[in-house]
Amino acid sequence: MCELLALSANTPTDMRFSFHGLTRRGGATGCHGDGWGVASYDPDGRGVHLYREDAPAAFSPIAAQVAALDLKAHCSIAHIRKATQGSVALENCHPFHRRWRGQEWVFAHNGDLKEDLPWPRWENGEASVLWGDYRPEGSTDSEAAFCWILGELDRAGIAPDDEAGLFASLVAASHRLARTGIFNCLISNGRWLYAYAGTRLHRITRRAPFTRATLADDDLSVDFAELAGADDVVTIVSTEPLTRDEEWLPLRVDEAILLVGGEVVRHHPPAVVTSLVPEARENT
Q1: How many degrees, rounded to 5, is the angle at CA 200 between CA 199 and CA 201?
Q2: Average pLDDT over the chain, rounded to whole?
Q3: The domain spanning residue 177 has which CATH number?
Q4: Which residues are catalytic?
């Protein structure tokens, strides 16, 4: 399947270190070589920068250029793809982007949706209905799920500024999709980041005192004390831990979080207590 990566921070922050580690899994240390993508929200509210390519991230000059860009943002999402549904094509690369009620939304999915889908299908497997203004451009179950989620929000009449209502609706939609197969997802509108673990996600929050970290998939280290300010808070969410010398917190099955400025502001189920992951696997 695929791997997910996201950032939520209280100050504009780049994701170069984490994205470099993720790209190594896109064909070098991992088998996710069917495409990659990055969505990074402009911190001044001028929209979202979206980069996608239907090629292995580990060997892509374009991915290397994007990894070198100083894309500072409060929210960013990245994805590397191992195709399970839909061909290897640009239109099937995540993250997917749609405009919902004046907001720029992006979505990335890890999993495989097969049974009891909440939308009809064409004979060739492509989603067959229009959900208002939301129609899949490619042939993945992931993009169809994103369009269905946005349609569900429209049908529920959720207001764009109703954070509690949005979170509850996203959790309900995630529950429904998790019944159809494997569903782990990341969604953002640039202000908040939603993460849902149907099977597997991890997170880590970095704040003062900052320490040094080394990637699990490359001999690259960063001393965050030299890069971050004293008040910076940055949370990274990923399918698997990206560093070998930090403690990552696994999300439980069916756990959902909403992050704003690097902090968890909403949580389902509430007050979940889990154990830390002492170190990442060297080869995932």
Answers
A1: 140
A2: 91
A3: 3.60.20.10
A4: 2
